[in-house]
């Protein structure tokens, strides 16, 4: 099955439509990712069809969880560009900022966005530092994160960026360990002004392992003392 068919048919199974232009840009980004991966370790997934499933479709499921049109979003720990790139290709009106502490990843995204004429400003910084910039604290409608850190750590890095009423959508595995992680993260979510609204479980067409997205609503302001330095967060999670 071609890259294009995997994406379009997978989206259709979730009730999502996707334009030919969006799929074209996703495929071009996939090609660039594979090429750059020859000289830089960006992903363990190196076949176009697997990138379509494991990266593109996996991230596009987020679109079933919230309205992304015209929203301001932050992708914390964006890595090689997920979920930033598939979401921006699908929904051009989304104002998304990919954030990562590794400069080579950010340079790769900048090069790709320039080549594809995708208006994205990537930022190289740690989450606990970038929030000190003007307009960052409680400045986003949506905060996204995929495979970055345990929930009790991740919540402290992400929830301070959200406006009250906004959504934090961490992407997680779906297994027994994930249940334990969620239980450990509940106190951090509450302390940071969040409320767990639900858990969306799904399976990417063509893959067996189930996935989940947590829907965490920002219901009150986060105290200004958060986030702490990363060493303190990991040593003493909320």
Topology, number of strands: 7
Structural class: alpha/beta
Q: What is the CATH T-level topology?
A: Rossmann fold
Radius of gyration: 17 Å
Order of helices and strands: HHHEHEHEHEHEHEEH
Strand content: 15-25%
CATH architecture: 3-Layer(aba) Sandwich
The helix tally amounts to: 9
Question: Domains counted in the coordinates: how many?
Answer: 1
Outline of this structure?
This protein has 238 residues and is α/β, with parallel strands linked by helices.
Task: Walk me through what this model shows.
- This protein has a single domain (63-235), classed as 3-Layer(aba) Sandwich (Rossmann fold), CATH 3.40.50.150.
- With 238 residues, it is an alpha/beta fold.
- The chain is built from 9 helices and 7 strands; from the N terminus they run αααβαβαβαβαβαββα.
- The protein has helices at 3-13, 20-36, 48-60, 84-90, 103-116, 127-130, 151-158, 176-191, 230-235; strands at residues 72-76, 95-100, 123-124, 140-146, 162-173, 194-202, 211-218.
- The chain has a 7-stranded mixed sheet with strand order 3-2-1-4-5-7-6, sandwiched between helices.
- Helix content is 40%, strand content 21%.
- α5 (103-116) links the parallel β2 and β3.
- The chain is globular.
């Amino acid at each position: 099955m071609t890259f294009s068919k995997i994406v379009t048919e997978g989206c259709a199974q979730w009730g999502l439509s996707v334009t030919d232009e969006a799929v074209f840009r996703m495929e071009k980004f996939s090609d660039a990712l594979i090429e750059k991966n020859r000289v830089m370790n960006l992903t363990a997934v190196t076949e176009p069809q697997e990138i379509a499933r494991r990266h593109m479709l996996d991230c596009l499921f987020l679109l079933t969880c919230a309205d992304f049109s015209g929203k301001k979003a932050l992708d914390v720990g964006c890595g090689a560009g997920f979920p930033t790139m598939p979401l921006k290709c699908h929904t051009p009106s989304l104002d998304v900022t990919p954030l990562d502490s590794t400069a080579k990843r950010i340079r790769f995204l900048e090069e790709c966005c320039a080549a594809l004429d995708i208006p994205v400003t990537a930022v190289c910084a740690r989450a606990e530092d970038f929030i000190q910039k003007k307009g960052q604290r409680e400045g986003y409608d949506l905060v996204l994160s995929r495979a970055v850190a345990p929930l009790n750590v991740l919540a402290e890095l992400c929830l301070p960026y959200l406006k009250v009423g906004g959504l934090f959508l961490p992407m997680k595995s779906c297994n027994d360990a994930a249940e334990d992680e969620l239980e450990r993260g509940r106190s951090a979510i509450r302390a940071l002004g969040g409320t767990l609204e639900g858990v969306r479980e799904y399976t990417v067409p063509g893959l067996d392992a189930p996935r989940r997205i947590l829907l965490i609503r920002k219901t009150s302001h986060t105290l200004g003392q958060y986030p702490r330095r990363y060493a303190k967060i990991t040593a003493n999670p909320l």
